[in-house]
Every structure is written in structure tokens, then in C-alpha cells.
Design brief:
globular, alpha+beta, 41% helix, three-stranded antiparallel beta sheet, 5 helices, Nuclear Transport Factor 2, Chain: A, five-stranded mixed beta sheet
Length: 174
């Protein structure tokens, strides 16, 4: 085998192996790789703390875990959803998430558009990957959400003070 043919064969094998691994791995593994962390280690550390809160929200959403979700919110925070009244109290959030989970099941993986930290305040923008779906009342429905999380560091812990989303079929485009 000629050296050039050997290199081409090795490259094809490497590409095929990488594709097989990429296609068999869970999407969440690759989602974190695409997070827009700053190259500055101090800024990146703060962004990772904020990411952890939003990621816990995502995991709890997928698990239908109202208690965990509501625990991520600060006292006096709000959740504003499309076509719903603002959930301003703890009891309103509990009722809202419980009602949501009675009719919908999620397998959401957030795509992160931005994680900006300004002192003790952070703004996180996410969207659902193209083609994401939710099961609503037993039926698969395309999920076009774009989310904004505003967090504050309160007594050393990041808490959600505002969560809002809207739907847009142009997910992740800007």
C-alpha cells in the first residue's frame, strides 16, 4: 500500500469512527461543548456557576420536578410564559408547573446563545435545538422556545429572578 493510500484510508477510518461515536452519544454531551464561555478564566468560572443553575432547571423540567424548579427561583421572582398570566408567587409557580407537567413531557436540551454576568446579575439566553419536540396531551408537538433567564447572586447563591420565553420558528437565528 502506498503511503498516500495509507493516509487516506486512515483518515476515512478516523472520520467514520468519529461519526459513529458522535451519532451514538447523547445530545447533552455536545450541548455543553457549544456554550459561549469567555476565554477569561475568571469570567468563565462565573458563567459556569450560572450555567449550572440553568442546567438544573433544564434537568428538572425534563424530570417534571416542580419542587426543584421552584427552588431555583428567588423570593419575589417571576415566571412569564407565552399565553399565561405572570407567576409571581411561589404558589403560582407551583400551580403553573404542576399544570404544565400534567399535560406535557419534555426532553429539552437548551442551546446557549449567551451567558452574560454583570457583577451579581446574570442574563442567559437559550433556545431549543431545531426540531425539538414536547409531548402535549400524548401528541408530539414541535417546541420552538427561546428563553431568557435573569439570575441574581443572593447570599452567595445564584437564583432565578426572571424566567420568560417566547416561541419563534427561527430557533437560534439572530
Amino acid at each position: 500500500m502506498k503511503h498516500r493510500d495509507h493516509i487516506a484510508c486512515k483518515a476515512a477510518f478516523t472520520l467514520a469512527t468519529w461519526l459513529a461515536l458522535a451519532l451514538s452519544a447523547p445530545l447533552a454531551v455536545y450541548a455543553e461543548d457549544a456554550i459561549p464561555y469567555s476565554p477569561d478564566p475568571a469570567v468563565s468560572a462565573k458563567q459556569r456557576e450560572v450555567y449550572d443553575v440553568v442546567h438544573r432547571y433544564e434537568s428538572a423540567l425534563n424530570a417534571k420536578d416542580t419542587d426543584t424548579i421552584v427552588g431555583l427561583f428567588a423570593e419575589g421572582s417571576v415566571a412569564e410564559w407565552n399565553n399565561k398570566r405572570t407567576y409571581a408567587t411561589r404558589d403560582q409557580k407551583i400551580a403553573g408547573y404542576n399544570a404544565l407537567f400534567r399535560s406535557a413531557s419534555f426532553s429539552t436540551v437548551f442551546s446557549y446563545d449567551a451567558i452574560n454576568v454583570y457583577g451579581d446579575t446574570a442574563v442567559v439566553r437559550t433556545h431549543h435545538h431545531v426540531g425539538a419536540a414536547v409531548i402535549e396531551n400524548g401528541k408530539k408537538v414541535t417546541d420552538y422556545n427561546r428563553e431568557v433567564f435573569v439570575l441574581r447572586k443572593i447570599d452567595g447563591t445564584w437564583k432565578i429572578v426572571l424566567y420568560t420565553f417566547n416561541t419563534d420558528p427561527k430557533q437560534g437565528e439572530g
